[in-house]
User: Which sequence fits this backbone?
């Protein structure tokens, strides 16, 4: 089983729609969780860290479910500029390696 | 402030040649990482530096790959006798502290070096 698994998508949504997707991780000892976004032929950029209680940053909401070992990302009021690949990233406590999911592709259409 | 920078941005080389890729981390970041990303694939961890030492080189694909870091800052990834399968984007990242769990240890990436081996 992969350390981090994501639905590759693509999720094709109209502008203004809400889109949500999950990521599962295999190691119950994981302590840090992030969502990165990666545009085509660009480097990954940190979108947000994911905290135990869940957190929101503008139109983006991240949730962590430790019992079921998944994290989620919800994007409200989608914009064309939200089109990207979203990478789920998990760090294992006392380890420095980030395990990257293969990414979920989101395409927002006008 | 300035982000992570990498050079060159693109490198085309012939099979069998050696290449050097450079990374300048964010000032003050003690941890530095090298990753590789092939077309349409996820990120593959190569090596981690804490200061000038590399506690984990386990991701280096073969002994043709080596890396060093000097002065706790700039790092160089060297690939000797390049092969076509080495073609990929090589990404460098840095973070403020050694990752030991919890937020605040996020990694920040440079723009990458696109390596093409003919």
Assistant:
């Amino acid at each position: 089983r992969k350390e981090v698994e994501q639905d590759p998508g693509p999720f094709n949504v109209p502008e203004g729609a809400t889109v949500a997707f999950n990521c599962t991780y295999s190691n119950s000892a994981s302590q840090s969780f992030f969502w990165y976004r990666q545009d085509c032929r660009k480097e990954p950029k940190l979108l947000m860290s994911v905290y135990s209680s869940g957190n929101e940053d503008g139109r983006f909401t991240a949730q962590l479910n430790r019992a079921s070992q998944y994290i989620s990302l919800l994007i409200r009021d989608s914009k064309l500029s939200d089109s990207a690949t979203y990478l789920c990233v998990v760090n294992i406590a006392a380890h420095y390696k980030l395990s990257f999911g293969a990414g979920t592709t989101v395409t927002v259409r006008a | 402030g300035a982000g992570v920078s990498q050079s060159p941005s693109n490198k085309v080389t012939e099979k069998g040649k050696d290449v050097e890729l450079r990374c300048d981390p964010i000032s003050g970041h003690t941890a530095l990482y090298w990753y590789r990303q092939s077309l349409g694939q996820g990120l593959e961890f190569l090596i981690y530096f804490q200061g000038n030492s590399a506690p984990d080189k386990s991701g280096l694909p073969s002994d043709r790959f080596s890396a060093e870091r000097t002065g706790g800052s700039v790092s160089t990834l060297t690939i000797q006798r390049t092969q076509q399968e080495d073609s990929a984007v090589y990404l460098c990242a840095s973070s403020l502290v050694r990752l030991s769990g919890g937020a605040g240890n996020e990694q920040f990436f440079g723009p990458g070096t696109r390596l093409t081996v003919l």
Chain B touches chain A at residues 31, 33, 41-43, 45, 48, 50, 55-56, 91, 98-112 (CB under 8 Å).
